[in-house]
Amino acid sequence: MAVPDPATSHAVPLRPSIASRLLNWGTWAIILALFVVSVRQTGFNLEVIGEGAFDFVRFFRRLVPDWRALPEIWRPLLETIQIAYLATVFGTLIGLPVIFLASFNTTVNAPVMWLARSILTVLRSIPDLLYAAILAPILAIGPLPGVVALTIFTMAVLAKLASETVEAVDPGPLEALRAAGAGRNRVIAYAVMPQIAATLTSYVLYIFEINVRASVVIGLVGAGGIGILLNRYLSFFDYGGLGTMIVVIFVVVLAIDQLSVWARSRLI
Amino acid sequence: MAHPPDPATIPPTPPAARRTQVLLALAAVGMLALMTYFIATMNLPTWVRVVAGFERNAVPLFRGFIDPNWGVFDLASRAMLETVFMAVIGTVIGGLLAFPMAFLAANNLLGSRLLAFPGKTVLVGIRTFPEILFAIIFVAAMGPGPIAGILAMGINSVGFLGKVFSDVVEGIDGGPSEAIRAAGGNDLHVFFFSVVPQVLPEFASYLLYRFEINLRAASVLGLVGAGGIGAPLIQRLSFRRWDEISMIMMVIVVTIIVVDTLSSSVRRRLV
Q: Which positions in chain A touch B147 (Cβ < 8 Å)?
Protein backbone atom coordinates (compact mmCIF):
# COMPACT_ATOMS: atom_id res chain seq x y z
CA MET A 1 0.00 0.00 0.00
CA ALA A 2 1.31 3.39 -0.95
CA VAL A 3 2.02 5.86 1.76
CA PRO A 4 0.04 9.09 1.06
CA ASP A 5 2.23 11.94 0.01
CA PRO A 6 1.87 14.63 2.70
CA ALA A 7 2.09 17.38 0.11
CA THR A 8 -0.95 16.19 -1.84
CA SER A 9 -3.10 14.42 0.75
CA HIS A 10 -5.95 16.55 2.04
CA ALA A 11 -6.11 14.65 5.31
CA VAL A 12 -2.73 15.96 6.40
CA PRO A 13 -2.87 19.71 7.04
CA LEU A 14 -0.12 21.58 5.32
CA ARG A 15 2.28 23.67 7.30
CA PRO A 16 1.39 27.33 6.64
CA SER A 17 3.52 28.91 3.94
CA ILE A 18 6.49 31.08 4.92
CA ALA A 19 4.73 34.14 3.48
CA SER A 20 1.62 33.72 5.60
CA ARG A 21 3.67 33.06 8.73
CA LEU A 22 5.78 36.14 8.02
CA LEU A 23 2.61 38.19 7.55
CA ASN A 24 1.18 36.90 10.83
CA TRP A 25 4.31 37.67 12.85
CA GLY A 26 4.85 40.91 10.95
CA THR A 27 1.36 42.10 11.89
CA TRP A 28 1.96 41.29 15.54
CA ALA A 29 5.33 43.08 15.39
CA ILE A 30 3.66 46.17 13.90
CA ILE A 31 0.93 46.12 16.56
CA LEU A 32 3.60 45.88 19.27
CA ALA A 33 5.70 48.66 17.74
CA LEU A 34 2.68 50.95 17.38
CA PHE A 35 1.78 50.24 21.00
CA VAL A 36 5.27 51.08 22.27
CA VAL A 37 5.36 54.34 20.30
CA SER A 38 1.86 55.29 21.46
CA VAL A 39 2.66 54.63 25.12
CA ARG A 40 5.84 56.71 24.86
CA GLN A 41 4.04 59.59 23.15
CA THR A 42 1.01 59.78 25.44
CA GLY A 43 2.78 59.09 28.74
CA PHE A 44 0.42 56.22 29.44
CA ASN A 45 1.46 53.73 32.12
CA LEU A 46 0.23 51.01 34.45
CA GLU A 47 -0.15 53.43 37.36
CA VAL A 48 -2.63 55.44 35.31
CA ILE A 49 -4.71 52.33 34.68
CA GLY A 50 -4.72 51.56 38.39
CA GLU A 51 -5.79 55.08 39.30
CA GLY A 52 -8.42 55.03 36.58
CA ALA A 53 -9.87 51.74 37.79
CA PHE A 54 -9.89 53.09 41.35
CA ASP A 55 -11.70 56.29 40.34
CA PHE A 56 -14.11 54.28 38.24
CA VAL A 57 -15.09 51.96 41.08
CA ARG A 58 -15.43 54.85 43.54
CA PHE A 59 -17.63 56.73 41.08
CA PHE A 60 -19.69 53.66 40.27
CA ARG A 61 -20.45 53.02 43.94
CA ARG A 62 -22.11 56.44 44.15
CA LEU A 63 -24.44 55.63 41.26
CA VAL A 64 -27.33 54.36 43.34
CA PRO A 65 -30.43 54.55 41.14
CA ASP A 66 -33.09 56.95 42.36
CA TRP A 67 -36.32 55.64 40.85
CA ARG A 68 -38.09 58.98 41.26
CA ALA A 69 -36.22 60.05 38.12
CA LEU A 70 -38.05 57.46 36.01
CA PRO A 71 -41.04 59.62 34.94
CA GLU A 72 -38.80 62.34 33.49
CA ILE A 73 -36.61 59.78 31.69
CA TRP A 74 -39.60 58.27 29.91
CA ARG A 75 -40.21 60.97 27.28
CA PRO A 76 -36.61 61.52 26.13
CA LEU A 77 -36.22 57.74 26.03
CA LEU A 78 -39.15 57.54 23.64
CA GLU A 79 -37.57 60.30 21.56
CA THR A 80 -34.32 58.31 21.41
CA ILE A 81 -36.14 55.30 19.99
CA GLN A 82 -38.08 57.52 17.57
CA ILE A 83 -34.82 59.00 16.27
CA ALA A 84 -33.30 55.54 15.78
CA TYR A 85 -36.42 54.23 14.05
CA LEU A 86 -36.91 57.19 11.70
CA ALA A 87 -33.22 57.30 10.79
CA THR A 88 -33.23 53.58 10.01
CA VAL A 89 -36.33 53.87 7.80
CA PHE A 90 -35.17 57.00 5.95
CA GLY A 91 -31.60 55.72 5.62
CA THR A 92 -32.84 52.44 4.17
CA LEU A 93 -35.17 54.17 1.68
CA ILE A 94 -32.44 56.57 0.52
CA GLY A 95 -29.74 53.89 0.61
CA LEU A 96 -31.65 51.29 -1.41
CA PRO A 97 -31.00 52.79 -4.88
CA VAL A 98 -27.41 53.60 -3.89
CA ILE A 99 -26.73 49.92 -3.11
CA PHE A 100 -27.31 49.00 -6.75
CA LEU A 101 -25.36 51.96 -8.11
CA ALA A 102 -22.34 50.86 -6.05
CA SER A 103 -22.40 47.18 -7.13
CA PHE A 104 -20.58 46.21 -10.32
CA ASN A 105 -23.31 43.82 -11.50
CA THR A 106 -26.22 46.25 -11.19
CA THR A 107 -24.66 49.68 -11.72
CA VAL A 108 -25.39 52.02 -14.62
CA ASN A 109 -21.80 52.43 -15.73
CA ALA A 110 -18.28 52.40 -14.29
CA PRO A 111 -17.93 56.13 -13.52
CA VAL A 112 -21.25 56.16 -11.65
CA MET A 113 -20.20 53.13 -9.61
CA TRP A 114 -16.85 54.71 -8.84
CA LEU A 115 -18.50 57.99 -7.80
CA ALA A 116 -21.07 56.21 -5.60
CA ARG A 117 -18.36 54.17 -3.89
CA SER A 118 -16.15 57.20 -3.26
CA ILE A 119 -19.00 59.20 -1.77
CA LEU A 120 -19.92 56.24 0.45
CA THR A 121 -16.30 55.86 1.61
CA VAL A 122 -16.11 59.52 2.61
CA LEU A 123 -19.55 59.46 4.30
CA ARG A 124 -18.62 56.31 6.23
CA SER A 125 -15.34 57.74 7.48
CA ILE A 126 -17.18 60.42 9.51
CA PRO A 127 -18.37 59.03 12.88
CA ASP A 128 -22.10 59.44 13.63
CA LEU A 129 -21.50 61.61 16.69
CA LEU A 130 -19.49 64.02 14.55
CA TYR A 131 -22.39 64.34 12.09
CA ALA A 132 -24.69 65.07 15.03
CA ALA A 133 -22.32 67.68 16.53
CA ILE A 134 -22.02 69.52 13.20
CA LEU A 135 -25.71 69.29 12.30
CA ALA A 136 -26.98 70.42 15.73
CA PRO A 137 -26.14 74.13 15.16
CA ILE A 138 -27.31 73.94 11.54
CA LEU A 139 -30.67 72.22 12.10
CA ALA A 140 -31.48 73.60 15.59
CA ILE A 141 -30.98 71.71 18.85
CA GLY A 142 -33.49 68.85 19.05
CA PRO A 143 -34.25 65.52 17.43
CA LEU A 144 -34.01 66.73 13.80
CA PRO A 145 -30.18 66.85 13.57
CA GLY A 146 -30.10 63.43 15.24
CA VAL A 147 -32.43 61.93 12.65
CA VAL A 148 -30.47 63.48 9.78
CA ALA A 149 -27.08 62.42 11.22
CA LEU A 150 -28.13 58.81 11.72
CA THR A 151 -29.91 58.73 8.35
CA ILE A 152 -26.65 59.61 6.59
CA PHE A 153 -24.82 57.00 8.67
CA THR A 154 -27.47 54.32 7.98
CA MET A 155 -27.42 54.99 4.27
CA ALA A 156 -23.63 54.82 4.01
CA VAL A 157 -23.22 51.66 6.08
CA LEU A 158 -26.18 49.84 4.52
CA ALA A 159 -25.08 50.64 0.97
CA LYS A 160 -21.57 49.36 1.70
CA LEU A 161 -22.68 46.12 3.43
CA ALA A 162 -25.48 45.35 0.99
CA SER A 163 -23.51 46.09 -2.16
CA GLU A 164 -21.05 43.38 -1.12
CA THR A 165 -24.04 41.01 -0.90
CA VAL A 166 -25.38 42.15 -4.27
CA GLU A 167 -21.99 41.52 -5.88
CA ALA A 168 -21.99 37.98 -4.47
CA VAL A 169 -25.43 36.93 -5.80
CA ASP A 170 -25.85 34.07 -8.26
CA PRO A 171 -25.45 35.69 -11.72
CA GLY A 172 -27.69 33.08 -13.42
CA PRO A 173 -31.09 34.75 -12.86
CA LEU A 174 -29.63 38.13 -13.83
CA GLU A 175 -28.34 36.76 -17.13
CA ALA A 176 -31.62 34.97 -17.81
CA LEU A 177 -33.64 38.16 -17.35
CA ARG A 178 -31.19 40.22 -19.41
CA ALA A 179 -31.32 37.62 -22.18
CA ALA A 180 -35.12 37.93 -22.15
CA GLY A 181 -34.74 41.67 -22.65
CA ALA A 182 -35.36 42.95 -19.13
CA GLY A 183 -34.00 46.40 -18.27
CA ARG A 184 -31.86 47.28 -15.25
CA ASN A 185 -34.82 47.94 -12.93
CA ARG A 186 -36.54 44.66 -13.79
CA VAL A 187 -33.30 42.72 -13.30
CA ILE A 188 -32.90 44.30 -9.85
CA ALA A 189 -36.53 43.72 -8.88
CA TYR A 190 -36.89 40.13 -10.09
CA ALA A 191 -33.36 38.67 -10.04
CA VAL A 192 -31.40 40.53 -7.36
CA MET A 193 -34.00 41.50 -4.73
CA PRO A 194 -35.32 37.96 -4.12
CA GLN A 195 -31.77 36.79 -3.55
CA ILE A 196 -30.77 39.55 -1.12
CA ALA A 197 -34.08 40.32 0.66
CA ALA A 198 -33.38 38.25 3.79
CA THR A 199 -29.78 39.47 4.14
CA LEU A 200 -30.86 43.05 3.52
CA THR A 201 -33.52 42.86 6.24
CA SER A 202 -30.97 41.41 8.61
CA TYR A 203 -28.55 44.27 7.86
CA VAL A 204 -31.30 46.83 8.45
CA LEU A 205 -32.05 45.27 11.86
CA TYR A 206 -28.34 45.24 12.69
CA ILE A 207 -28.01 48.93 11.76
CA PHE A 208 -31.09 49.68 13.86
CA GLU A 209 -29.24 48.18 16.85
CA ILE A 210 -26.28 50.47 16.13
CA ASN A 211 -28.62 53.45 15.71
CA VAL A 212 -30.28 52.83 19.07
CA ARG A 213 -26.87 52.93 20.76
CA ALA A 214 -25.92 56.06 18.82
CA SER A 215 -29.21 57.87 19.48
CA VAL A 216 -28.66 57.34 23.22
CA VAL A 217 -25.51 59.50 23.12
CA ILE A 218 -26.08 62.04 20.32
CA GLY A 219 -28.04 64.19 22.76
CA LEU A 220 -24.72 65.03 24.44
CA VAL A 221 -23.94 67.27 21.47
CA GLY A 222 -27.49 68.63 21.29
CA ALA A 223 -29.03 66.25 18.80
CA GLY A 224 -32.04 65.13 20.80
CA GLY A 225 -33.01 62.06 22.77
CA ILE A 226 -32.01 60.84 26.19
CA GLY A 227 -28.48 62.29 25.92
CA ILE A 228 -29.72 65.82 26.64
CA LEU A 229 -31.08 64.70 30.02
CA LEU A 230 -27.88 62.68 30.59
CA ASN A 231 -25.89 65.86 30.08
CA ARG A 232 -28.01 67.67 32.67
CA TYR A 233 -27.60 64.91 35.27
CA LEU A 234 -23.84 65.01 34.66
CA SER A 235 -23.48 68.75 35.05
CA PHE A 236 -25.59 68.79 38.25
CA PHE A 237 -23.79 65.73 39.69
CA ASP A 238 -27.18 64.05 40.03
CA TYR A 239 -25.88 60.55 40.79
CA GLY A 240 -29.35 59.18 41.52
CA GLY A 241 -30.67 60.26 38.14
CA LEU A 242 -27.48 59.11 36.41
CA GLY A 243 -27.70 55.68 38.01
CA THR A 244 -31.35 55.29 37.01
CA MET A 245 -30.57 56.37 33.49
CA ILE A 246 -27.71 53.89 33.13
CA VAL A 247 -29.96 51.05 34.28
CA VAL A 248 -32.74 52.17 31.91
CA ILE A 249 -30.34 52.45 28.93
CA PHE A 250 -28.91 49.03 29.73
CA VAL A 251 -32.31 47.34 29.90
CA VAL A 252 -33.73 49.03 26.79
CA VAL A 253 -30.66 48.50 24.60
CA LEU A 254 -30.33 44.90 25.76
CA ALA A 255 -34.01 44.19 25.05
CA ILE A 256 -33.90 45.73 21.57
CA ASP A 257 -30.63 43.90 20.82
CA GLN A 258 -31.97 40.52 21.89
CA LEU A 259 -35.18 40.98 19.88
CA SER A 260 -33.22 41.99 16.84
CA VAL A 261 -30.69 39.17 17.23
CA TRP A 262 -33.55 36.71 17.53
CA ALA A 263 -35.25 38.10 14.41
CA ARG A 264 -31.98 38.02 12.49
CA SER A 265 -31.33 34.42 13.47
CA ARG A 266 -34.76 33.50 12.07
CA LEU A 267 -34.06 35.36 8.82
CA ILE A 268 -30.88 33.66 7.63
CA MET B 1 -42.21 24.01 -31.95
CA ALA B 2 -42.80 25.78 -28.70
CA HIS B 3 -45.97 27.79 -28.37
CA PRO B 4 -46.22 30.86 -26.14
CA PRO B 5 -48.05 29.76 -23.00
CA ASP B 6 -51.75 30.54 -22.91
CA PRO B 7 -52.32 33.12 -20.15
CA ALA B 8 -55.14 30.99 -18.83
CA THR B 9 -52.74 28.12 -18.14
CA ILE B 10 -50.35 30.19 -16.03
CA PRO B 11 -50.97 28.92 -12.51
CA PRO B 12 -52.21 31.42 -9.92
CA THR B 13 -49.86 32.58 -7.18
CA PRO B 14 -49.58 29.75 -4.65
CA PRO B 15 -51.38 30.44 -1.33
CA ALA B 16 -48.14 30.50 0.69
CA ALA B 17 -46.62 33.15 -1.58
CA ARG B 18 -49.82 35.17 -1.48
CA ARG B 19 -49.78 35.04 2.33
CA THR B 20 -46.21 36.36 2.30
CA GLN B 21 -47.26 39.19 -0.02
CA VAL B 22 -50.14 40.16 2.28
CA LEU B 23 -47.90 40.00 5.35
CA LEU B 24 -45.25 42.16 3.67
CA ALA B 25 -47.85 44.74 2.64
CA LEU B 26 -49.21 44.82 6.20
CA ALA B 27 -45.70 45.27 7.62
CA ALA B 28 -45.03 48.13 5.21
CA VAL B 29 -48.28 49.85 6.14
CA GLY B 30 -47.51 49.39 9.85
CA MET B 31 -44.03 50.83 9.46
CA LEU B 32 -45.34 53.83 7.52
CA ALA B 33 -48.04 54.46 10.13
CA LEU B 34 -45.44 54.33 12.92
CA MET B 35 -43.21 56.67 10.92
CA THR B 36 -46.03 59.20 10.43
CA TYR B 37 -46.97 59.02 14.10
CA PHE B 38 -43.35 59.58 15.18
CA ILE B 39 -42.90 62.54 12.86
CA ALA B 40 -46.22 64.06 14.00
CA THR B 41 -45.31 63.80 17.70
CA MET B 42 -41.69 64.86 17.32
CA ASN B 43 -40.51 68.23 18.49
CA LEU B 44 -39.39 69.70 15.15
CA PRO B 45 -37.96 73.19 14.52
CA THR B 46 -39.74 75.65 12.23
CA TRP B 47 -38.79 75.84 8.58
CA VAL B 48 -37.61 79.44 9.07
CA ARG B 49 -35.23 78.34 11.83
CA VAL B 50 -33.77 75.59 9.64
CA VAL B 51 -33.20 77.92 6.69
CA ALA B 52 -31.61 80.53 8.96
CA GLY B 53 -29.38 77.92 10.59
CA PHE B 54 -28.38 76.64 7.19
CA GLU B 55 -27.38 80.07 5.92
CA ARG B 56 -25.55 80.98 9.09
CA ASN B 57 -23.68 77.69 9.62
CA ALA B 58 -23.77 75.30 6.67
CA VAL B 59 -22.71 77.86 4.08
CA PRO B 60 -19.47 78.85 5.89
CA LEU B 61 -18.81 75.16 6.61
CA PHE B 62 -18.93 74.26 2.92
CA ARG B 63 -16.95 77.35 1.99
CA GLY B 64 -14.31 75.96 4.37
CA PHE B 65 -14.19 72.69 2.46
CA ILE B 66 -13.52 74.51 -0.82
CA ASP B 67 -11.03 76.99 0.61
CA PRO B 68 -9.57 75.33 3.72
CA ASN B 69 -7.98 77.31 6.50
CA TRP B 70 -4.42 75.91 6.65
CA GLY B 71 -3.76 77.83 9.86
CA VAL B 72 -5.16 75.00 11.99
CA PHE B 73 -3.61 72.19 9.93
CA ASP B 74 -0.63 71.84 12.29
CA LEU B 75 -2.78 71.71 15.38
CA ALA B 76 -5.29 69.35 13.75
CA SER B 77 -2.65 66.88 12.56
CA ARG B 78 -0.95 66.85 15.96
CA ALA B 79 -4.32 66.21 17.65
CA MET B 80 -5.11 63.51 15.08
CA LEU B 81 -1.78 61.81 15.80
CA GLU B 82 -2.70 61.78 19.49
CA THR B 83 -6.06 60.31 18.49
CA VAL B 84 -4.31 57.49 16.60
CA PHE B 85 -2.09 56.79 19.65
CA MET B 86 -5.18 56.69 21.87
CA ALA B 87 -6.89 54.24 19.53
CA VAL B 88 -3.77 52.01 19.46
CA ILE B 89 -3.50 51.86 23.25
CA GLY B 90 -7.25 51.38 23.68
CA THR B 91 -7.24 48.52 21.18
CA VAL B 92 -4.23 46.79 22.74
CA ILE B 93 -5.70 47.07 26.25
CA GLY B 94 -8.96 45.64 24.90
CA GLY B 95 -7.03 42.82 23.23
CA LEU B 96 -5.02 42.00 26.35
CA LEU B 97 -8.18 41.83 28.47
CA ALA B 98 -10.10 39.96 25.75
CA PHE B 99 -7.42 37.27 25.35
CA PRO B 100 -8.24 35.42 28.60
CA MET B 101 -11.96 36.22 28.20
CA ALA B 102 -11.96 34.48 24.82
CA PHE B 103 -10.99 31.17 26.39
CA LEU B 104 -13.31 31.67 29.36
CA ALA B 105 -16.24 32.20 27.00
CA ALA B 106 -15.49 29.37 24.53
CA ASN B 107 -17.75 26.33 24.79
CA ASN B 108 -15.23 23.86 23.37
CA LEU B 109 -12.26 24.74 25.59
CA LEU B 110 -14.26 24.70 28.82
CA GLY B 111 -16.03 21.53 27.77
CA SER B 112 -19.57 22.74 28.42
CA ARG B 113 -21.97 25.55 27.56
CA LEU B 114 -22.74 26.08 31.22
CA LEU B 115 -19.14 26.92 32.14
CA ALA B 116 -18.85 29.37 29.26
CA PHE B 117 -22.11 31.10 30.20
CA PRO B 118 -20.76 33.61 32.79
CA GLY B 119 -18.02 34.73 30.39
CA LYS B 120 -20.48 35.17 27.54
CA THR B 121 -22.88 37.13 29.77
CA VAL B 122 -20.17 39.57 30.86
CA LEU B 123 -19.28 40.19 27.21
CA VAL B 124 -22.93 40.83 26.23
CA GLY B 125 -23.26 43.24 29.16
CA ILE B 126 -20.22 45.24 28.06
CA ARG B 127 -21.36 45.34 24.43
CA THR B 128 -24.73 46.74 25.46
CA PHE B 129 -23.31 50.11 26.53
CA PRO B 130 -22.45 52.67 23.87
CA GLU B 131 -18.76 53.55 23.87
CA ILE B 132 -19.37 57.24 24.49
CA LEU B 133 -21.30 56.36 27.66
CA PHE B 134 -18.19 54.65 29.04
CA ALA B 135 -16.19 57.73 28.06
CA ILE B 136 -18.61 60.05 29.89
CA ILE B 137 -18.43 57.93 33.01
CA PHE B 138 -14.63 57.83 32.90
CA VAL B 139 -14.44 61.59 32.33
CA ALA B 140 -16.83 62.18 35.24
CA ALA B 141 -14.87 59.78 37.46
CA MET B 142 -11.28 60.79 36.70
CA GLY B 143 -11.46 64.16 34.95
CA PRO B 144 -11.09 65.04 31.26
CA GLY B 145 -8.14 63.95 29.12
CA PRO B 146 -6.94 61.21 26.81
CA ILE B 147 -6.53 58.65 29.63
CA ALA B 148 -10.30 58.59 30.21
CA GLY B 149 -10.84 58.02 26.50
CA ILE B 150 -8.22 55.26 26.31
CA LEU B 151 -9.73 53.39 29.24
CA ALA B 152 -13.26 53.77 27.85
CA MET B 153 -12.15 52.33 24.51
CA GLY B 154 -10.21 49.57 26.22
CA ILE B 155 -13.20 48.42 28.26
CA ASN B 156 -15.62 48.72 25.38
CA SER B 157 -13.32 46.81 23.01
CA VAL B 158 -13.29 43.84 25.38
CA GLY B 159 -16.99 43.24 24.69
CA PHE B 160 -16.44 42.97 20.94
CA LEU B 161 -12.99 41.35 20.92
CA GLY B 162 -13.91 38.84 23.62
CA LYS B 163 -16.88 37.71 21.55
CA VAL B 164 -15.11 37.39 18.20
CA PHE B 165 -12.01 35.85 19.83
CA SER B 166 -14.13 33.20 21.53
CA ASP B 167 -15.88 32.50 18.22
CA VAL B 168 -12.44 31.96 16.69
CA VAL B 169 -11.46 29.62 19.52
CA GLU B 170 -14.71 27.67 19.10
CA GLY B 171 -13.96 27.26 15.40
CA ILE B 172 -10.46 25.76 15.67
CA ASP B 173 -9.48 22.42 14.18
CA GLY B 174 -9.36 19.69 16.84
CA GLY B 175 -6.77 17.61 14.96
CA PRO B 176 -3.54 19.22 16.20
CA SER B 177 -4.77 19.16 19.81
CA GLU B 178 -5.54 15.43 19.56
CA ALA B 179 -2.16 14.80 17.99
CA ILE B 180 -0.39 16.54 20.87
CA ARG B 181 -2.46 14.60 23.43
CA ALA B 182 -1.70 11.33 21.60
CA ALA B 183 2.00 12.14 21.76
CA GLY B 184 1.69 12.58 25.56
CA GLY B 185 1.26 16.35 25.79
CA ASN B 186 -0.75 17.86 28.65
CA ASP B 187 -3.38 20.63 28.57
CA LEU B 188 -0.72 23.34 28.70
CA HIS B 189 1.09 21.86 25.71
CA VAL B 190 -2.18 21.65 23.80
CA PHE B 191 -2.96 25.28 24.62
CA PHE B 192 0.41 26.70 23.63
CA PHE B 193 1.26 24.49 20.65
CA SER B 194 -2.15 23.86 19.11
CA VAL B 195 -4.74 26.43 20.22
CA VAL B 196 -2.65 29.60 20.31
CA PRO B 197 -0.88 29.13 16.94
CA GLN B 198 -4.21 28.43 15.26
CA VAL B 199 -5.97 31.51 16.61
CA LEU B 200 -3.19 34.11 16.34
CA PRO B 201 -3.70 35.20 12.69
CA GLU B 202 -7.43 35.67 13.16
CA PHE B 203 -6.89 37.46 16.47
CA ALA B 204 -4.53 39.85 14.69
CA SER B 205 -7.09 40.44 11.96
CA TYR B 206 -9.85 41.25 14.46
CA LEU B 207 -7.51 43.52 16.44
CA LEU B 208 -6.88 45.52 13.26
CA TYR B 209 -10.61 45.65 12.54
CA ARG B 210 -11.31 46.88 16.06
CA PHE B 211 -8.54 49.44 15.63
CA GLU B 212 -10.45 50.86 12.65
CA ILE B 213 -13.60 51.13 14.80
CA ASN B 214 -11.68 52.62 17.73
CA LEU B 215 -10.05 55.25 15.53
CA ARG B 216 -13.51 56.49 14.55
CA ALA B 217 -14.57 56.43 18.21
CA ALA B 218 -11.38 58.18 19.35
CA SER B 219 -12.01 61.01 16.87
CA VAL B 220 -15.25 61.89 18.67
CA LEU B 221 -14.31 61.04 22.28
CA GLY B 222 -13.05 64.60 22.62
CA LEU B 223 -16.59 65.88 22.14
CA VAL B 224 -17.32 64.62 25.66
CA GLY B 225 -13.93 65.68 27.05
CA ALA B 226 -12.01 62.43 26.62
CA GLY B 227 -9.07 63.72 24.59
CA GLY B 228 -8.00 63.48 20.97
CA ILE B 229 -9.00 65.61 18.01
CA GLY B 230 -12.58 65.98 19.29
CA ALA B 231 -11.33 68.43 21.93
CA PRO B 232 -10.20 71.21 19.55
CA LEU B 233 -13.25 70.41 17.42
CA ILE B 234 -15.83 70.95 20.17
CA GLN B 235 -14.14 74.24 21.15
CA ARG B 236 -14.46 75.52 17.61
CA LEU B 237 -18.03 74.25 17.39
CA SER B 238 -19.07 76.32 20.37
CA PHE B 239 -17.45 79.42 18.81
CA ARG B 240 -18.84 78.55 15.36
CA ARG B 241 -15.40 78.74 13.71
CA TRP B 242 -16.64 76.93 10.61
CA ASP B 243 -13.55 77.46 8.43
CA GLU B 244 -11.40 75.73 11.05
CA ILE B 245 -13.99 73.00 11.65
CA SER B 246 -13.95 72.00 7.99
CA MET B 247 -10.13 71.76 8.08
CA ILE B 248 -10.28 69.51 11.17
CA MET B 249 -12.97 67.36 9.56
CA MET B 250 -10.84 66.89 6.47
CA VAL B 251 -7.88 65.78 8.59
CA ILE B 252 -10.13 63.23 10.33
CA VAL B 253 -11.63 61.92 7.08
CA VAL B 254 -8.29 61.56 5.29
CA THR B 255 -6.63 59.83 8.26
CA ILE B 256 -9.50 57.40 8.72
CA ILE B 257 -9.64 56.51 5.02
CA VAL B 258 -5.86 55.94 4.87
CA VAL B 259 -5.84 53.79 8.04
CA ASP B 260 -8.90 51.81 6.87
CA THR B 261 -7.35 51.09 3.49
CA LEU B 262 -4.01 49.97 4.99
CA SER B 263 -5.63 47.90 7.71
CA SER B 264 -8.16 46.17 5.49
CA SER B 265 -5.51 45.26 2.92
CA VAL B 266 -3.50 43.54 5.68
CA ARG B 267 -6.65 41.84 7.01
CA ARG B 268 -7.57 40.46 3.60
CA ARG B 269 -4.20 38.72 3.39
CA LEU B 270 -4.17 37.49 7.00
CA VAL B 271 -7.24 35.26 7.01
A: 44, 48, 52
